[in-house]
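Sequence design from tokenized structure. All designs in this work follow the same two-part layout: the structure record, then the generated sequence. An example of the structure record is given first.
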């Protein structure tokens, strides 16, 4: 398990480089899985470099897909919904959860993807399989945060490792 200091440094570095207009020399994304006590659901937010996600989607679906171009908005939403179903799985208390695609937001550098799980009783064990962008990059790193009642547990998943579990 990586120390909180390392993760803070790494996320800060990601944030700093996310404003660069140059091509980035690494492939990294983050996924935050936050349990909402009121709705009893997991709210999931993924953040990825726009060009990396665009390349990964275009390669998977064998057609050009471009962010920041309105004519691709519907195609991107459909592709992302399928993509997320393929590359993100979540279990709570040894039971797979149905994950609903909510939508995405984009800016010049990054894309945020939003998902939500079906309602689930208070989680004690959370298992996640995250392999976003593994279909395109063999050096992809996904930083994963699981948060329940303010208790954050994080790990770094480096290709080909895609599995993480935490006890709460």
């Amino acid at each position: 398990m990586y120390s909180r200091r390392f993760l803070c440094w790494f996320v800060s570095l990601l944030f700093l480089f996310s404003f660069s207009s140059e091509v980035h020399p690494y492939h990294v994304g983050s996924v935050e899985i936050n349990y909402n006590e009121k709705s009893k659901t997991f709210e999931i937010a993924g953040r990825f470099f726009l060009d990396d996600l665009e390349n990964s989607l275009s390669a998977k679906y064998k057609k050009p897909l471009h962010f920041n171009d309105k004519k691709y908005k519907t195609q991107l939403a459909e592709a992302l919904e399928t993509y997320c179903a393929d590359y993100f799985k979540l279990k709570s208390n040894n039971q797979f959860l149905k994950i609903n695609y909510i939508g995405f937001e984009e800016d010049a550098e990054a894309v945020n993807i939003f998902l939500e799980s079906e309602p689930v009783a208070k989680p004690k064990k959370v298992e996640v399989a995250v392999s976003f962008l593994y279909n395109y990059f063999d050096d992809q790193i996904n930083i994963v945060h699981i948060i329940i009642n303010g208790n954050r547990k994080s790990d770094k998943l480096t290709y080909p490792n895609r599995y993480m579990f935490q006890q709460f």
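The helical segments are 4-17, 50-61, 73-87. We note this feature because it recurs in several other targets discussed in the main text.
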